[in-house]
Design brief:
The complex is a heterodimer. By secondary structure, chain A is an alpha/beta fold. Chain A contains 13 helices and 27 strands. Chain A folds into two domains: 292 residues, 4-Layer Sandwich (Metallo-beta-lactamase, Chain A), CATH 3.60.15.10; 157 residues, 2-Layer Sandwich (Nonspecific Lipid-transfer Protein, Chain A). In chain A, the strands form six sheets. In chain A, strands 9-8-7-3-2-1-18-19 form an eight-stranded mixed β-sheet, with helices on one face. In chain A, helix 2 packs parallel to helix 13. The longest helix of chain A has 24 residues. Chain A is globular. By secondary structure, chain B is an alpha/beta fold. Chain B has 13 helices and 25 strands. Chain B has an eight-stranded mixed β-sheet. In chain B, strands 10-11-12-13-14-15-17 form a seven-stranded mixed β-sheet. In chain B, strands 23-22-21-24-25 form a five-stranded mixed β-sheet. The two termini of chain B are 33 Å apart. The chains are: A alpha/beta, B alpha/beta. Chains A and B meet through helix 7, helix 8, strand 22 and helix 12 of A and helix 7, helix 8 and helix 12 of B.
C-alpha cells in the first residue's frame, strides 16, 4: 500500500489496483466565495485524467478544507463515498443530490474496497467542540497487512489505537496533523489577541513545544511508530502562493529526524509518495506524475518564501463583502441580526466564554459593570461609524453602545470581537463560513482568558457545521453554484 | 456589631448607628403562591413594623428565597436598595416599581453608612452557573474593626475578597454566615438533582453518612483554601415546599449540625441560629439574645420535625404531580406543541455549547444512517390525550425530533433524560412560572455525568433568570399584576 499526498490533508491511497481518495481537494483552491479563495500550498496542479481510476472516496469531516464539493463533482458518480458516524446529514444530502452513493460507516466499523480495508473513528472526547464531527481513518492492505492511520483534525480515539495495534495489522505509519497556525509574522492568526499583552503560547521555543506535542501524542498512543507523516497547514490566502504559516512541514520533519533514534518523520509535498509495504517505510519524491508542483515549489519550498517575521499580504483584507446598501442594512439590523443575537446570547452565556465573562469582575478602569463583551461591527462607505453592541449580563441581551465609546473600547471591555457588518450579514445568510472570515484576517478580537475560550473560538464553535448545519450547507451549495455545478 | 437571623438566609446586621437588611424574606412564605410556594422553616412571624428601620437593604441575587417583592413591600420605600451589577435588570425594575430607589454596586465597591462599612463581592468563579450572579457582602464596624462579618450566600467565596485579604487591604472576617443548601430529601422523595439511572453515577445523596458530608462541606472544606473564621453561622435549607408533605429537609436542623460540628472542632465554633436570635460580636467573644420583633413558633417547629421523622419511618413515597393546576384541554395542549418544538429548536445551540452539550456530543452519533443515536430525551407528561410526548436530541443532525420510545425503555435507550409535565413546561415557556417552581417537585432526570452537568442543571441554567431574563421579567410582573405584592 502507498499513500500519495494531494496537498494539505488530502491523500491518494493505493494498493495494487485499488485506489481510494481521502478528503480530495483536486482543484487549486477552495472557499465559499469567488473573491476570497484559499489556495492549496504548495501550489500544484492535479491532472485529473492521468490520476487513474478511483474505487472509493473517504471524507473524514465536513470542514471546508477537506470537503470540497466541486472536486467531488469531477468524479464519476459510480464511485462510492464513505462518511463517518458524526458527519452531519447535510453533507450526505449534497452528495446524494450530486448523484453519488453515500455510505455511512459506524465508529470503527471496517469496510473493504478492493484490497484496502478501512474504518473511520470519531475523535476522542478531548477533541475541540468545533472539531467534534471529525474522524480519523485507519486503512490496511489486505494483501500485506501494512496499516496507515490518518489522524485528521481530531484527537486520537482509543478504539483506533486498539484496532491499529491489533494482531494481524502492521501499523507502518501515522499521519499526524500539524495544525498550529502561527503566522509568519509570529502572531497567532485569528486567535491573536489585539490586547497588547505578551502571549505565552506564541513566545519562546514554541516550535519545539508544538513539534513535541505532535510527536509525543503519537508515542503516547502507539509507542514507537516506524514513520510519522506530518500533514496540515497546507493552504494560504495569498494568490502568489506564499505560505501563511511559520515552520513548514519539511522543516519540522528535518528537525525531528535529527532528534530521533529510530522513528522517522516524513513531510511529503504534493506528488510525494510513502511506500508502506516493504520492511522499512520508503519515501519517494515526486512519484505521482499526475500531480505537478508549480515552479516555485519545485525549486524547493523555501526558495522564494519571504523571511520569517514578514507580514503577509492577507493582513490587508478589510472585509469579504462590500458595504451593505442602506435598505439592506436597515432590513438586516431591524430583524435578522436581532433574531441571530437573541439565540447567540444564550449559547454564549452558557459557553466557556460566558464563564469567563462572569469571572472577570474588574478591568483596567476598575470594577466592571454588567457589560463585559462588545461586538464592534465595522461599516464602510457612507455610514462609516461602527455599530457597537455590548452584551449586558444583567439584561441578558446585546445593547447598543454610543459610538463615542469606540476609541476606548479595549480599555472598557475585557472581551471584544471586531468584524465588518457586511461580513456578519454574509455569515448569517450562509454566504461564507466564520472560519473563512477569521482566516482571511477580517476578524479581530481581544480577551483576558485562555485563547481557546476567546470570542473567536466561541464563534468558530457556534457557527460550526455541527451547530449551524443549514448555514454550512448553504456555503457548500454556493461553492457548487459558483462553478455552475448545481 | 449585632447580627440577627431573620430566617432561611435573611440577616439584619447592625452597627452602632446604622443597619443593613440582607435578602429580606419577612413573610412566612415566598415564591409561587397559587398552590406551590415555600413556607419558611423554622416557622416564625416577623413584625416588620416593629423591626428597626434599616439604613439600607441589600439583595444578593434574584432567586425567590432572596428576592421577595412581597417582603420589600412591607418596608419604607425611602430605604435605599442595593443590588450587585450582574443581578438581572428585571429585579431592579420590580423594586423601582414598588417605589424604591435602586443602587447598583460592582464587585469590590464599598459603601459607608455611619459606622458601618459594607463591601460587595462577586461570587467565586467556580460557583454553579445559576448562582454565579450572587454578590457576597462583607461588613466592618468602625467600633469593632477587628471583627468583620461576611455573608457568603449560596456561592463559593469570592476570590477578589480573598485577594484583598491576602494583600492586607481587608481584615479576614472572624464571623461568616454560610448556607447549607443540601436540600437532602428523604428516601421516597426524588430530589432536584437525583439520578434515576442506577449506575456508578447514581447520586449518592441518600446513601451513607450524608449529613456528615453536608457538615464537612459547610464548615470545613468550604474554607479549605481560604482563611478560617472563628465563628460560623449556618443557615439555609430554611423552607418547606407546599407540594412535599414530608416537612423540613433532613439535615436542615442547623442547631444540631452546629452542636455536632463543635464536638469535632479544634478551634472554630459553629452556630445554628434560630429565627430571632441575635449575635453580638464583641472583642473576644459573642453574646446571644433574642429580638422582640421576630416570634418563633417553637411548637410548630417541633411538630413539623416530628412529621418529617414519621414520614421517614413510614417508608412512604411522594407521588409527583404537575405544579400548574389550571386545567388545559387537549386542543389547547395540541395548540402548544408548536411552541414547544420552536423552543426546543431555539435551545439547540445553547445546549450544544453547554457543559451538558459537551457530554452529549462526546458520545457516538450512531453506527449507520438509520440509527443516529440520541443521547438525550425530553419527556413531557400528560400531553394531548393524556399521553406523554417526547423529543429526542439528535446529535448528528443537531436538532430535536419526536420520539416514541416506550417509558420502560427510556433509561436503556437514552443516557440522558429529563421529565416534566407538559403544562408546567408550557407555563415556563410563557413566563408563568419559573424553572425553580418545579425543581425538586415536578422535574426529574437521569444522566451519565457529574450531577452539576446533567439535564436539570442545564434547565436551571437555560430557563433560569441568568439566561432567560425575558422569562423572569414576565414572571415577576405577572405576579405583581396579580396582586400578590401589596
Amino acid at each position: 500500500m502507498k499513500a500519495t499526498s494531494l496537498g494539505h490533508l488530502g491523500w491518494h491511497l493505493s494498493d495494487g489496483t485499488t485506489a481510494l481518495l481521502v478528503n480530495p481537494v483536486l482543484e487549486g483552491s477552495f472557499g465559499s466565495t469567488h473573491d476570497h479563495r484559499f489556495f492549496l500550498f504548495p501550489r500544484r496542479t492535479i491532472d485529473f485524467a492521468e490520476m487513474g481510476h478511483v474505487d472509493g472516496i473517504v471524507l473524514t469531516n465536513e470542514h471546508i478544507q477537506n470537503f470540497h464539493p466541486p472536486s467531488l463533482a469531477l468524479m464519476p458518480r459510480s464511485v462510492p463515498i464513505f462518511i463517518g458516524c458524526e458527519t452531519p446529514p447535510f453533507l450526505r444530502q449534497i452528495l446524494l443530490d450530486l448523484g453519488f452513493t453515500v455510505e455511512r460507516l459506524g465508529h470503527g466499523v471496517s469496510r473493504v474496497v478492493g484490497t484496502i480495508e478501512f474504518s473511520l473513528f470519531r475523535g476522542a472526547s478531548s477533541t475541540l467542540a468545533m472539531d467534534g464531527t471529525v474522524h480519523s481513518l485507519l486503512a490496511t492492505s489486505t494483501q500485506t497487512n501494512a496499516t496507515l492511520a490518518i489522524q485528521s483534525e481530531c484527537q486520537i480515539h482509543p478504539d483506533l489505537v486498539t484496532q491499529a495495534t491489533a494482531p494481524g495489522r502492521k501499523l507502518k505509519a501515522f499521519v499526524a496533523t500539524y495544525n498550529f497556525q502561527l503566522r509568519r509574522n509570529g502572531t497567532l492568526g485569528f486567535l491573536s489577541n489585539a490586547f497588547p499583552l505578551p502571549d505565552e503560547s506564541a513566545s519562546g521555543f514554541v516550535g519545539i513545544e508544538v513539534l513535541n506535542g505532535i510527536l509525543n501524542e503519537v508515542s503516547e498512543h502507539f509507542g514507537v511508530v516506524e514513520a510519522v507523516i506530518l500533514a496540515g497547514n497546507g493552504y494560504t490566502t495569498d494568490m502568489d502562493g506564499q505560505p501563511m504559516f511559520r515552520w513548514d512541514n519539511q522543516t519540522l520533519a528535518g528537525i525531528a529526524n535529527r532528534l530521533s533514534l529510530w522513528s522517522r518523520v516524513f513531510a511529503p509535498l504534493p506528488s510525494d509518495t510513502i511506500h508502506l509495504d516493504g520492511s522499512r517505510v520508503q519515501f519517494e519524491s515526486g512519484a505521482a506524475s499526475w500531480i505537478r508542483l508549480e515552479a516555485l515549489c519545485q525549486e524547493g519550498p523555501q526558495s522564494k518564501i519571504p523571511d520569517e517575521g514578514s507580514e503577509v499580504e492577507t493582513a490587508c483584507v478589510k472585509s469579504a463583502f462590500p458595504a451593505l446598501s442602506y435598505e439592506r442594512e436597515n432590513e438586516f439590523l431591524g430583524h435578522e441580526l436581532k433574531v441571530a443575537l437573541s439565540l447567540l446570547r444564550k449559547a454564549l452565556l452558557l459557553s466557556e466564554l460566558g464563564e469567563e465573562l462572569l469571572r472577570v469582575s474588574s478591568y483596567l478602569e476598575g470594577p466592571l459593570g454588567p457589560k463585559r463583551l462588545v461586538l464592534r461591527l465595522r461599516r464602510e462607505g457612507r455610514n462609516a461609524e461602527p455599530l457597537l453592541l455590548a452584551l449586558d449580563l444583567s439584561r441578558g441581551e446585546f445593547v447598543e453602545v454610543p459610538s463615542s465609546e469606540d476609541a476606548t473600547l479595549m480599555r472598557r471591555y475585557p472581551f471584544g470581537l471586531d468584524l465588518p457588518l457586511s461580513d456578519l450579514e454574509g455569515l448569517l445568510r450562509g454566504a461564507i463560513q466564520f472560519w473563512e472570515l477569521a482566516t482571511l484576517g477580517v476578524v479581530r478580537q481581544w480577551y483576558v482568558c485562555d485563547r481557546m475560550k476567546s470570542p473567536v473560538c466561541f464563534m468558530l464553535t457556534y457557527f460550526s457545521e455541527r451547530l449551524h448545519p443549514a448555514l454550512a450547507e448553504s456555503t457548500y451549495r454556493s461553492s457548487l453554484t459558483l462553478r455552475g455545478l448545481t | 456589631m449585632k447580627i440577627t437571623f431573620v430566617g432561611h438566609q435573611t440577616w439584619f446586621v447592625e452597627g452602632a448607628r446604622a443597619s443593613v437588611l440582607v435578602d429580606p424574606v419577612l413573610r412566612d412564605r415566598f415564591g409561587r403562591t397559587e398552590n406551590s410556594g415555600f413556607q419558611v422553616f423554622p416557622p416564625r412571624t416577623v413584625n416588620a413594623s416593629e423591626m428597626p428601620t434599616p439604613s439600607a437593604v441589600f439583595i444578593s441575587h434574584e432567586h425567590s428565597d432572596h428576592f421577595d417583592p412581597g417582603s420589600l413591600a412591607l418596608l419604607d420605600t425611602r430605604i435605599p436598595v442595593y443590588l450587585g451589577a450582574l443581578v438581572i435588570e428585571p429585579v431592579a425594575e420590580v423594586i423601582r416599581q414598588l417605589g424604591f430607589t435602586v443602587h447598583r454596586v460592582n464587585s469590590g465597591e464599598q459603601l459607608e453608612i455611619e459606622d458601618l462599612r459594607v463591601t460587595f463581592f462577586a461570587a467565586g468563579s467556580a460557583t454553579a452557573y445559576w448562582e454565579s450572579r450572587v454578590y457576597q457582602v462583607y461588613f466592618e464596624s468602625s467600633t469593632a474593626p477587628d471583627d468583620p462579618f461576611f455573608i457568603a450566600v449560596d456561592a463559593l467565596i469570592s476570590e477578589e475578597m480573598q485577594s484583598q485579604i491576602d494583600a492586607g487591604r481587608l481584615v479576614a472576617p472572624t464571623t461568616v454566615a454560610v448556607s447549607n443548601n443540601s436540600q437532602v430529601t428523604p428516601e421516597g422523595v426524588f430530589g432536584s438533582m437525583d439520578n434515576r439511572r442506577v449506575t456508578p453515577f447514581t447520586n449518592p445523596k441518600k446513601k451513607g453518612f450524608v449529613g456528615l458530608g453536608v457538615l464537612e462541606s459547610v464548615v470545613h472544606s468550604y474554607f479549605k483554601t481560604h482563611w478560617r473564621p472563628e465563628r460560623i453561622l449556618i443557615c439555609g435549607c430554611g423552607f418547606m415546599k407546599d407540594s412535599d408533605d414530608f416537612g423540613p429537609f433532613p439535615f436542615s436542623d442547623q442547631q444540631e449540625l452546629a452542636a455536632l460540628a463543635n464536638r469535632l472542632s479544634l478551634g472554630p465554633v459553629a452556630f445554628g441560629p434560630l429565627p430571632g436570635e441575635r449575635y453580638e460580636i464583641r472583642a473576644g467573644g459573642v453574646a446571644t439574645s433574642r429580638v422582640p420583633w421576630i416570634e418563633l413558633d417553637e411548637a410548630r417547629m417541633q411538630s413539623l420535625r416530628a412529621m418529617r421523622d414519621r414520614f421517614m419511618a413510614s417508608g412512604r413515597s411522594l407521588r409527583k404531580q404537575a405544579v400548574v393546576s389550571t386545567p388545559m384541554s387537549d386542543s389547547q395542549k395540541q395548540d402548544h406543541v408548536g411552541l414547544i418544538e420552536k423552543s426546543l429548536s431555539d435551545m439547540v445551540s445553547a445546549l450544544m455549547m453547554s457543559k451538558l452539550g459537551r457530554h452529549l456530543t462526546s458520545r457516538s452519533a450512531g453506527n449507520d444512517e438509520a440509527n443516529a443515536s440520541s443521547p438525550l430525551v425530553v419527556r413531557l407528561l400528560d400531553g394531548p390525550g393524556g399521553e406523554a410526548l417526547q423529543w429526542a436530541f439528535d446529535a448528528r443532525a443537531s436538532g430535536f425530533r419526536r420520539d416514541k420510545t416506550e417509558a420502560q425503555s427510556l433509561l436503556e435507550r437514552f443516557p440522558f433524560g429529563v421529565e416534566l409535565w407538559f403544562v408546567d413546561f408550557i407555563a415556563i415557556l410563557q413566563g408563568e412560572i419559573q424553572v425553580w417552581d418545579i425543581a425538586g417537585t415536578a422535574l426529574e432526570s437521569w444522566y451519565a455525568c457529574d450531577e452539576f452537568e446533567g439535564p436539570v442543571p442545564f434547565f436551571y441554567s437555560y430557563f433560569g433568570e441568568n439566561t432567560s431574563v425575558e422569562l423572569a421579567r414576565k414572571v415577576y410582573f405577572r405576579r405583581l399584576a396579580s396582586g400578590e405584592t401589596p
